[in-house]
Amino acid sequence: MRPSHPSLVATAVVLTALLSIGDASARPPAIQLFCESYSNARLCAASRVDCSLCHTRTESPVAWNAYGDDVRSAFSRSSTSDETFAAALPGALAAVEHRDSDKDGVSNSDEITAGTLPGDAASAPASETTCGPAELSTTYDVCRYDGRYALRKVTLEACGRSPTPAELAAMADTPIELQPDAVADALTTCMQSEFWRGRDGVVWNIAHAKIRPTIFVAEPEENTDGHYTSEEDFDYFPDYALFVYTQIDGHDSRDLLNARYYVQRLIVDGRSVYKPVDELPSRQKMPTERRAGMLTTRWFLLFNNMFTALPRTAAAQAYRAYLGLDIALGEGLKPVPGEPADYDYKGVAAPTCAGCHSTLDPLSYPFSRYDGVTVTNLDEKGRYLPTRLEDSYEASLPGVSAMPEAGVLLGRPVSSLTEWAELAASSQEFASSRVSDYWQVFFHAEPSGAELATFDTLVQAFRTEHAYAIEPMLRDLVRTEAFGAP
After folding, report:
1. pLDDT per position as a tens digit, 138-179
2. Which domain holds residue 30?
3. Assign residue 410 a region: left if phi > 0, alpha if psi is -120 to 50, beta otherwise?
4. Which of 74, 212, 353, 386 has the fewest CB atoms within 10 Å, i.e. is most exposed?
């Protein structure tokens, strides 16, 4: 599931609505301006993007909260152009940072630094707790890491069961300083279970938001040899197999986007086994050199590219699913000069659209030669077709074939979809999205406040120490005080 906890970054986007009554169009430069103003803001550093810092979603149309009202009141009514807005925003933010907009006893600037919401009285930095020496009791130790509490969380979330009395007793007998490692070992055992890695297991369920399955399209059948296969034209089960494979057994999770192989799921002695293969018996026919993991499966191209000349939906879904950036919420906007060019005559160069499409359209160009369902030949569907625009769209959209295949991702040029995928998979945003998916498995919430420092540490170690492998990152996670202290 995409992380969606509130961010100071997105607020900068929606702050543009202050500029004139009834004008809620976003000015993407506000994102950069806000983060430049508050470079020490934890939510901003963690790339968390949401509009709720300044707005409330409980009313329609969306209304300002207390902090948003204060910032809006600090704006000059003459700040109507991009230039005057850019000049006025830092001053408006600074003018209200020492107020306590939501009346929770903490200043706006302190909440911004801590990663809580200055417009929401229910969101405030945690108060200090005075703790004495550790004591073993029948209840959990709320002042420090408690191995029994952490073990219960691990077995419930990763094994699908409660810990046994013997397991809890063994943990209680473990020296306090060794309990985090004992919990991590229990996690490693759970990660071998079908509850974790099997069909409809924990990892499989994480994939739902990325794959977006439709049960009426494909349903596998178990053959007598224990294989799950499907001959449906647009089968999404190879997507699940590839997703799970990249998340287990120390594999490099960047292969979500970089894999040049497919994965077959086998059932061996009642257990799921995932095997990388060069080809599959179904209609997965993408040439090896054009494969980009989850972005070039037959199902992804059918569901997202379909029959559109410029597959904006595919690019937006990839951006959201694997980088945690939702353009519809104003996230990850990095405008490209001269864009959008509007090759397909959709009117996206209009002022109300250009703010997002100056990022989205160049993000989408590398997807434009991958076919979804345009061609009539079944063996050509879901393939890379270099003349796709000329053959299928030029007659109805004159000039569309001039659309480049090269694009821009995260402000950097890319020449192809495989290069798009490689850049995405090596990014901070990809690592943050991976850690966030599993954080939500164990916390059932997104990191906030003081937890963001722990989250950032996990992300950096995931990239620099663990080679993007999930298991060592999760072993780090369950050893943290954020996880193990009740």
Report:
1. 567 778 899 999 999 999 999 999 999 999 999 999 999 999
2. 8-114
3. left
4. 386
3-class DSSP state for residue 412? strand
Q: Are 25 and 351 in contact (CB under 8 A)?
A: yes
Question: How far is Cα of residue 348 from the mean position of the Cα atoms in its chain?
Answer: 25
pTM for the whole structure: 0.79
The residue out of 114, 140, 160 marking a domain boundary is 114
Given a cut of 70, is residue 50 above it in pLDDT?
Answer: no
Whether 200 is in a domain gets the answer no
Cα separation, 198 vs 362, in Å, equals: 38
**8 A C-beta contact, residue 140 and residue 150:** no
Judge whether 358 lies within some domain. Answer: yes
Task: Give the C-alpha separation, 316 to 287, whole Å.
Answer: 24
Q: Answer with the one of 62, 87, 114 that is the final residue of a domain.
A: 114
pLDDT score at 147: 97
183: nearest Cα among 172, 198, 194: 172
Residue at 152 is within a domain: no
User: Distance between CA atoms of 417 and 439, rounded to whole angstroms?
Assistant: 29
Q: Measured between alpha carbons, how far is 10 from 48 in angstroms, rounded to an integer?
A: 8
Count of structural domains, the chain? 2
- Please state, as a whole number, how many other Cβ atoms lie within 10 Å of the Cβ of residue 194: 13
CA dist 336 and 126 (Å) reads 41
Q: How far is CA 312 from CA 305, 338, 363, in A?
A: 8, 18, 8
Specify if 110 maps to a domain.
Answer: yes
